[in-house]
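Design job #97: recover the sequence.
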């Protein structure tokens, strides 16, 4: 069988450039303006633009974004020591900035009780709305957090 012609190689190159360009547009961290009716425009979030987190239990984290949105991240199992941590990292498992789907991210933190680095796999992500989100959202220009364990969040991409 012969080598692929120039037209085939050029078509593959154009598709790769289009895919990379589309991915970079999706990584802006802002909700898309062309969302289909009936879908949640805040379904995904960019961990780079988060300002805090709370741990209601040992397998759930609520992440608060800079644009006053709350996201519930459920872990694969108990994430012991998370409630003692002052800060977390949200590490992308896909190399993309946005976290949209289960398995897109891991939570990385230092357990202040034992001082060791730990990781927990995110199994589900849910955008909270209405009254459900209100109890986790910090009013603008207020540094007050609820009495449950809370702290700051940061992000990193898998290399």
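Job complete. Output follows.
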């Amino acid at each position: 069988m012969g080598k692929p012609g120039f037209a085939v190689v050029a078509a593959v190159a154009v598709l790769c450039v289009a895919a990379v360009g589309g991915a970079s547009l999706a990584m802006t961290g802002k909700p898309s303006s062309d969302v289909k009716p009936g879908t949640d425009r805040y379904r995904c979030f960019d961990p780079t633009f988060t300002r805090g987190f709370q741990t209601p239990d040992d397998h759930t984290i609520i992440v608060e974004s800079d644009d006053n949105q709350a996201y519930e991240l459920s872990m694969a199992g108990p994430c012991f020591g998370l409630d003692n941590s002052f800060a977390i990292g949200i590490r992308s498992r896909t190399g993309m900035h946005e976290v949209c789907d289960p398995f897109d991210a891991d939570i990385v933190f230092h357990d202040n009780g034992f001082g060791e680095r730990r990781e927990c796999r995110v199994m589900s992500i849910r955008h909270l709305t209405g009254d459900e989100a209100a109890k986790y959202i910090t009013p603008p220009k207020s540094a007050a957090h609820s009495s449950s364990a809370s702290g700051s969040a940061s992000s990193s991409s898998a290399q």
